Amino acid sequence: MTSQLSAICFTTSLPAQLARFWAGVLDWESAAGPEGDVAVLPPDGTGYRIRFVPGRAPKTVQNRAHFDLTSTSPEEQRRTVARALHLGGKHIDVGQRPEEGHVVLADPDGNEFCVLPAGNAFLAGIGPVGALACDGTQEVGYFWSEALRWPLVWDQDQETAVQSPAGGTKITWGGPPVAPQSGVNRLRLELAVPADADFPAEIDRLLALGATRAGGERAGGGAFLLDPDGNEFTVHRLG
Questions:
Q1: Where would I find the Glyoxalase-like domain in this sequence (predicted)?
Q2: 218 pLDDT exceeds 60?
Q3: What percent of the chain has pLDDT over 90?
Q4: Spatial distance between the Cα atoms of 13 and 177, rounded to a whole number of angstroms
Q5: Closest CA relative to residue 109, chosen from 41, 178, 33, 50
């Protein structure tokens, strides 16, 4: 049985503060976890969590992935930006041009995100988190489509995107050039395998698709793996 995307994980020295920030920006609820982590939860109980995991490594480079938040009107875009700034976010410059229309911000731990203007047809109707936008090759987009068994909803000019058959947030990869990785990524995907599934067989399936072992095992028998672009992700058993 295929792994399910259960969470987007941020490693941070400020898990509680980041959870408050993102819960406030998205109007989601937060819940404390068993390992000092805190998660914010989609209001309808479906989809994946955003989880903040304790870690001490300082942020030194731009993240390889960021959230694109959607807007249904210019007023909503302004409200989202104002709410993020009030909660501790800040404006940053990553080379965006004024004519692009999106606002680039960072959360209180420096993680970049964009607030998009209204009228983005590709992300219309998805909800506040339109996309997890990643640096990545076409190969890694194909890998994640097979790993999650999510269809490709974009595959053009080496840019790819996938989306759950149930809808919801898209994951996109911008194609080359991809900046070299510097240290461990602060954002990673967390996959869950149903309790009644063959966990070793699922790990073997992911390895056959192009993942590699990152070394070590998670507590409880989970696994650390790398996707074809060298991005870390974790797999654990539900229950």
A1: 8-116, 132-235
A2: no
A3: 79
A4: 30
A5: 50
Kindly list the structural domains of the chain, giving each domain's residue range(s) and its CATH number in brackets, ordered by start: 4-173 (3.10.180.10), 198-237 (no CATH)
Angstrom distance (rounded) from CA 219 to CA 221: 6
Kindly give the pairing relationship between strand 212-217 and strand 159-162: unpaired
| Structural tokens at position 36 | 């000092």
- pLDDT tens readout for residues 44-98: 766 789 999 999 878 888 999 999 999 999 999 999 999 999 999 999 988 777 7
DSSP state string for 37-52? -EEEE-TTS-S-EEEE
Burial class (CB in 10 A: 0-12, 13-18, 19+), 91: exposed
CA distances in angstroms from 61 to 20, 24, 90, 182, 226, listed in the order given? 24, 26, 17, 7, 19
Token digits of residue 227:
């996707």
Q: Does residue 7 carry a pLDDT above 70?
A: yes
